[in-house]
Amino acid sequence: xxxxxLNIILLMFISVCAVAxxxxxxxxxxxxxxxxxxxxxxxxxxxxxxxxxxxxxxEVGIVFLLFSLGLEFSLPxxxxxxxxxxxxxxxxxxxxxxIFTSVPYFFGIDLSASIIIGGTLALSSxxxxxxxxxxxxxxxxRRTQLAxxxxxxxxxxxxxxxxxxxxxxQTGEVSIALALGExxxxxxxxxxxxxxxxxxxxxxxxxEVARTRTDELFVLTTILIALLAGGLTYYFGxxxxxGAFLAGMMLGESQYKYQLEADIRPFRDILMGxxxxxxxxxxxxxxxxxxxxxxxxxxxxxMVTKVVLVRLASMLVKTDAIDGWSAGVKLxxxxxxxxVIAALATTHGVLTSEQSSLIVCMGVxxxxxxPWLMNNSVVIAKRIVNNELPVEENELSVxxxxxxxxxxxxxxxxxxxxxxxxxxxxxxHFVAVDMDPVRVHESRxxxxxxxxxxxxxxxxxxxxxxxxxxxxxxxxxxxDKAKQVITQxxxxxxxxxxxxxxxxxxxxxxxxxxxxxxxxPELQEGSLMLVSQVLHYAGVPMSRILKRxxxxxxxRYDHMHGFYPGETTEISYGTEDKLEFIHAVVLSEHASCxxxxxxxxxxxxxxxxVKGLRRDGKEVKDPDKDATLQAHDVLVxxxxxxxxxxxxxxxxxxx
Length: 655
Hints:
By secondary structure, the chain is of the alpha/beta class. It has four domains: 49 residues; 318 residues, Up-down Bundle (Na+/H+ antiporter like fold); 122 residues, NAD(P)-binding Rossmann-like Domain (Rossmann fold), CATH 3.40.50.720; 73 residues, 2-Layer Sandwich (Alpha-Beta Plaits). The chain is 62% helix and 7% strand. The protein is built from 28 helices and ten strands. A six-stranded parallel β-sheet has the order 3-2-1-4-5-6, sandwiched between helices. It has a four-stranded antiparallel β-sheet with strand order 7-10-8-9, with helices on one face. Helix 3 runs antiparallel to helix 13, helix 5 packs across helix 8 and helix 8 packs across helix 16. It is elongated. About 2% of the residues have low confidence.
């Protein structure tokens, strides 16, 4: 027990370090997990001598992934895609399986083993493609939808293979048709049952759970439904992922879709990482080393062939050439279910252990190449068809070289979008820059001029034509990143105005020092608007209100800094030296400062301001610094918490 626990801790440590290093190198986390698995596997550190023991837990990650995917694809949406799923998907599976079956059969491998090899090589990685497409924000564009449709059919096609393998082992080639027929009947029954339950029972269950208003119950129910659906299909000898996908698809039409997705995401991401670790563990370095040249050549031939076959299959429906080639590039790797099929076939003696190891080696290498291929799929497709890159994928083509006198909005969240709407109403051109791939995709589909990228990078600002812009507006609440944006903007243009929105007033000075022309503290500005409304309703003339508002902004909200702390005031490690407190110090009869003037105390040297003085119950406005302090006076001071504390001790104790 103790050793197993230490092994898990060590595996987590390796995974964390690998993800951190790969992230710094701008490589996707999937590669980090594969690397961690290879390092921790039986070939190197041998933390887990039998990685197959972790397989079931890792497969739960795929269950959650397919459940999330099902939420994206409701039944009406799937029916609308039926020509892609059952047209292109079926065509790709038949073509690829047939070709990759004929090659080993030609070299003398028996038909049963050849069919299993052909099926494993025909499958692609749902886990990598969906995860990468989601992170890139391209899940809902045409070419990714085409790829996802093929993946959905491949997941369905796993079912006949899983059922056929035990029967092939028992009775040979004669039972192939019988095995596939049995698989089909089981599949139809389970799918019909799950869809019925999902349609009539699950919405009622979640409605009752939602009424309890208990977050824990909602999360537990979501996990239970995903696992129950996966467990049911697993019991019937089908893929766990298929059941989870169907359950998610049924709930994709409900009002709870987004909450379900948010609840499942942390578990999905962690377990998906574990899955890729187990994939890396299965890589046998001795097999890889002994057959390195053959494996590398095999991977290249495999990937090129699959790209061509996906393109051929996409021609069954009228698909754009770039979409077809791009989908092929996305799907040219070997899938995670190929490992499951290969392992099962080895257990039943249909494949030899060496054949299974070669499939795993080719699979891991092809998976490792997939993130790069996903990022460059459209560029590769464009080169193949010798065509121009479509506007929706070329993130920088949104910006026209002739655009000038415009506003650059860095951060397109709620604040950025509100500003954009007002600029649009006034006919002022703008360009937005945002790092959220989903938001960028949604905004671009709606016709917004937006670039995906980090606004603190010079190249992104150049793409937004910052040298000809009128204003750069930073709307996100990340001070360090905002300073980087200011610095990069100033290196490109000294004359452009930079405006920064911040939530906290204590960040004003640092942002001004970084080079901002105007800093708008959200809290103070909101308070200022409230004050102006109060003064208006109190009968103060509008001209005086506007004059006071202008004076406050010009004085950097001087009268609005500082507050009286209370029990509910939250002071964290990062804010304890940044907040400004107002504190009333009651001077007792034994206070050290009695008989001295305010000037004598030298509070300015301690960077503490005197806000006011109360004497005999009356307020002394703007007290003279030469005023002598008396017993029972109340001195109102303002400053950062530690400075206020030191000032009080000096007033009372003389320390």
